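A protein record pairs a chain with a discrete description of its three-dimensional fold. The following entry can be read in just this way:
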Amino acid sequence: MRPLNGRARARPNPRLVKIHRNYTIEEVANLFGIYKGTVCNWLARGLPICDDRRPILILGQDLVEFLNSRRAKPTRRCAPGEMFCLRCRVPRKAAGDVAGYVPHTATVGNLTAACVECGCQMFRRVNRLKLEAVFGDLRVRMPQAQEDINDNRSPSLNGDLNP
């Protein structure tokens, strides 16, 4: 069986499953547009079956619970002064306890720092009003406002109007 549109879906939708129905491996694969081998991998990872007879039957309710449990991933909250390192996959302190703030809008920006363990660049999206709660032990470098061209006291000597 080939997946729909030539590619498998990344996240099967559990709402497509009828909970009061039994499914074979082929029916589950056709329902989600995935390979039968993927369903067999789910069976090896804990998807329960009805009994040990052939054909292998999967209860719709068990399939929904299995798919929902795979979607629910534990979140890892960062403590004050920490950012999530994508390479290490855990919240880490910033190297040298120094971070930079890069504004995106008037209210939201990114904290950027290097990971203590691997040196990888880390980012943390922060509301500007809540910066103090996120800082912890960090020293944060805020961006300096650029000088406006009208604030310059001496006029520019370059110009086409010089006689």
About this structure: The first strand starts at residue 22 and ends at 23. The chain has a mean pLDDT of 83.
